[in-house]
Amino acid sequence: MRCRLRAMSHRGLSFLTGVRLLKMVHQRRSLIAPRNQRSAPFSLHSVIIDTSLYAIMRPRRNTMADTMQRFKTLFAGSDVDYVECEVVNATQRYLQLREQGRHEGFTPVIVTLDDLILDEITEGLENAGVQTVPELVRRTMEASQAIDVPAFFAHAAQELPAETAKKDQQISTVDDYFASGFSASPDDDDPTTVDFISPFQADSDNPVIIIKLPTTAPYEALAYLCMGGWNDCPEPAIQVAVSRYWYEKYGAVPAAISHDTVEYYVECPPQTDADAKAVAVELFYFSYGDAVYQGSETFEALANQVYSSRQWYVWWD
After folding, report:
1. Predicted TM-score (pTM) of this structure
2. Is 234 helix (H, G, I), strand (E, B) or coil?
3. What tens digit of pLDDT does each residue of 72-92 get?
């Protein structure tokens, strides 16, 4: 599994930002090392920052035209089409294309294009030893068939700390993640409203487009974009398998994707307390904790957010 730093939206990195990045790397290395080999706490006195390191950390800025050309090159011959869209109209345009795609046999996905998401596809091609995106998609879809999603969730449950409402109780059921007596309910007056967030989080230099994938299986979008496989973000085949699982249960489809987020449009969202709780816990597993620890903050809030909601948001650090 690859480790990468989160993308910076600023044109340059200040000295203090550089120090923060070094501290992040130090902490990450410490966390993944065996306990008896973990390094001492971070100290600025132990770090030498020179201009060459600063230059390495400062990202090169590609123009929007550069990014679009790279996208077109990667997807040449793949039958993937795209339409340009304004960020403010991205959700409305997506919903229009979704209806059109039902009749014409394609799947639309809002994509925030940047170097990171294109790097994922490039590395995916190299790692799979294939030359084209369709070949990569076939490999990923084949691998996804062997993944047992409930087993994946069970494994994630064993790895994630159980910082729940019942801190002293061993987690054995979905209800154990929630406070006693809690019953989920929609936290929005109109949970059917959809307005995707990730397009608005795009850097001004990164184009937001809607790609039209030549498939009627919407979960294949994660294979086309080779989403995941870095830090705690699940590998592309797992992304596909989990998305297929949610599609079959709730009609959830990947609708808006950036290099570190997936937003789902949900046709048949949870309508019961039990289903809302189950989805909340599954999102917790899938995001490796980020949906709660860096999002809703509590399982109860997350269950309320997904209850009857046509929009789910997943982010990885």
Report:
1. 0.79
2. coil
3. 999 999 999 999 999 999 999
